[in-house]
Design a protein that fits this description.
It is built from nine helices and nine strands. Helices cover about 35% and strands about 35% of the residues.
Length: about 325
């Protein structure tokens, strides 16, 4: 059989290393099993898969590369999957082994995760969509993995609320209440303020086979805003959601700091070198702009700032 020329293996016109070469928009069905043997979760996932390319190669054989990556994905997703970051890690390891010229392989995965929810008063059943994602970078000897989620909630502005609360106190004084009664009454009311639809995001990056609970990440984000939001609410549910939000006003900065505190509390077993990214975007209702806050840090740095580093140091950090 005649051997066809391998143009990709030729010298490029300009000998420059490329950081990432690969494929995007690779859609696969991923079945995630539950450790409690409940019904598996089926995700329609979008993958991106890359390798680095040395300066002496013209291309990365993308026509054959697609076949290799498709084969690796098919084999990986047909095996039992319990956590999506481990799936990405396995794909990254195997992709790297297929490309002898590469020193680094990277895999990204994004999915929509359906979460079952009940409304707070009438317990009306519903489903909410949460964006989840995972990434993995494989190099010789180790794999660095990342997992995270982005969750929609709501916030109530503390600044506008305090202005409105002051007006309520003054109005109560004109009605004959004492100053103490006016302050006490105003403190108990869910005083009006403007609201925002908030988007909270947490990502956690760890080494090798250590895995992180996505469900716990989602809970932390939801509980770090003024209130959760729901797809279906009856009138008693709406009343309680509004009351909760206005009794728990938060700036965008408050949401990120609350995420940090709850994350340190929930993930006691994470090593100090785990890299944490916390973000919050609030879509303002009375402004044309959005409010944004972010914190990037290691788990050890967050523990030190929150005063929990002593208990954390007693735990042995797993070897890479």
């Amino acid at each position: 059989m005649e051997t066809l020329p391998d143009v990709q293996a030729c010298q490029p016109e300009y000998p420059i290393n490329l950081t990432r070469v690969g494929l995007t928009g690779v859609k696969k069905l991923v079945k995630v099993l539950r450790e409690d043997e409940g019904r598996p979760i089926v995700l329609i996932s979008n993958f991106e898969v890359f390798v680095d390319l040395p300066s002496d190669r013209k291309g990365a054989n993308l026509s054959r590369n697609f076949e290799v990556i498709d084969e690796v994905l098919e084999e990986a997703v047909n095996e039992p999957v319990y956590v999506i970051e481990e799936l990405c890690g396995e794909i990254a390891r195997r992709v790297l082994s297929k490309h002898e010229y590469a020193t680094r392989a990277e895999v990204k995965m994004k999915s929509e995760y359906i979460v079952e929810r009940s409304s707070p008063v009438t317990r009306t059943a519903g489903q909410e969509v949460v964006d989840i994602f995972a990434e993995a970078v494989a190099k010789a000897g180790h794999v660095r993995k990342l997992v995270g989620a982005e969750v929609v909630g709501m916030t109530a502005c503390p600044c506008a609320q305090e202005i409105m609360r002051d007006q309520v106190r003054k109005e109560l004084l004109t009605l004959g209440l004492s100053q103490e009664e006016a302050f006490d009454f105003a403190a108990k009311l869910p005083v009006a303020t403007h609201n925002q639809r908030g988007r909270g995001m947490i990502s956690i990056q760890v080494c090798d086979r250590r895995c992180v609970s996505l469900d716990e990440i989602i809970k932390i984000i939801e509980r770090s805003m003024s209130s959760r939001v729901f797809g279906l609410l009856k009138r008693p549910d709406e009343a309680l959601v509004v009351q909760r939000a206005h009794n728990n006003p938060k700036f965008v900065e408050d949401c990120v700091r609350t995420m940090a505190q709850k994350l340190v509390e929930a993930f006691e077993d994470l090593p100090d070198d785990a890299v944490i990214v916390l973000k919050q975007v609030n879509e303002e209702s009375i402004h044309q702009h959005n409010a944004f806050a972010e914190r990037s840090a290691t788990m050890g740095e967050l523990r030190a700032e929150l005063g929990t580093e002593d208990s954390a140091s007693a735990r042995e950090v797993p070897k890479r």
